[in-house]
Amino acid sequence: MPNHQLDPNKWITLYADYLFNYTIVRVKDRETAQDLVQETFFAGLKSMANFKGEASERTWLISILKRKIIDHYRKINSKKGQAEVRINYNSDAESEGDWLEERVADGYDKNAEDQIQNEELGLAIEDCLDKLPEKQAKIFKMKTILGYETETICNELNITASNLWVIIHRARTALSGCLEQNWY
Amino acid sequence: MSTKYKFFISCEEAKHICDKSQYGEASFWEKVKLNVRLSWCRITRGYSSNNNKLTKLVQKSKIDVIEEDKKAEMQRKLQEEMSKY
């Protein structure tokens, strides 16, 4: 039974960071990731009529984002294709002959596995952050992820330092509990 | 205040110092007091262990967020776009 509704007014607050984390591990560039997230929201608006309400709002937006990321790679690949006239692995004459050895893939790519696990962890933390009250999540992100000074946050949000630490404490306790259930 | 009271802090205060130390904002003296508490209080130890674990997980995940001013700009653009529909 379709029961999910779309509310574009809340998209940025609720999903921008989640979509951004999903994107940044795939495109490795903040600016591009932010643009793709913004484009996803625009595309979402355009195709609101197609939303059947069967999936959650976030799942639906992620499916749009996936297409945007694929389009992004198609675009840069086609640009690359036009520019690449010659294929030169290494122009340095001294290292001639080493190319085969250097290009052999690592049989067990630990990095790739770690990256996947870190991405999943990042999204699990985002999921837990979503469950916090909006103000707690915002302050936790500013302090922990963006690394803002206590004073800066207090001035910006007009709260006292002790207020901030109470909020941080609540957020950390809730997050630990949530990750205990969903991650450890 | 006697030396004894200087060294012994409540569980709440210990948790507060533990939170601050996650961000490198606990003073040397506060850390000493926290360590004294950690040596005998199981609840503080449990909290501290979870707190440290959370800090490590957040660092390991390399989680990132969009800056607040950028979000405000995105919201403005979205509102503009919404007005077209």
Walk me through the structure.
The complex is a heterodimer of chains A (184) and B (85). Chain A is mainly alpha-helical. Chain A has helices at 11-27, 30-46, 57-83, 99-103, 110-130, 134-145, 150-157, 161-182. Helices cover 70% and strands 0% of the residues of chain A. The two termini of chain A are 34 Å apart. Chain B is mainly α. Helix content of chain B is 76%, strand content 0%. Chain B has five helices and no strands. Chain B has helices at 3-7, 11-22, 28-40, 42-61, 68-82. The chains are: A mainly alpha (184), B mainly alpha (85).
Q: How is this fold's topology laid out?
A:
The complex is a heterodimer of chains A (184) and B (85).
Chain A lengths: L10 H17 L2 H17 L10 H27 L15 H5 L6 H21 L3 H12 L4 H8 L3 H22 L2
Helix pairs in contact in A: 1-2, 1-3, 1-5, 2-3, 5-8, 6-8
Chain B lengths: L2 H5 L3 H12 L5 H13 L1 H20 L6 H15 L3
Distance between the termini of chain B: 68 Å
* Global outline of chain A: globular
Oligomer: heterodimer
| Distance, first to last CA of chain A | 34 Å
Secondary structure tally, helices of chain A: 8
Q: Classify the secondary structure makeup of chain B into a structural class.
A: mainly alpha
Fraction of helical residues of chain B: over 70%
Gyration radius of chain A, rounded: 22 Å
Helix content of chain A: over 70%
Order of helices and strands of chain B: HHHHH
Element string of chain A (H = helix, E = strand) = HHHHHHHH
Biggest sheet character of chain B: none
The CATH topology of the largest domain in chain A corresponds to Rna Polymerase Sigma Factor, Chain: A
Biggest interface pair, residues each?
A: A-B, 43 and 31 residues
- Total strand count of chain B, please? 0
Low-confidence runs of at least 5 consecutive residues of chain B? none
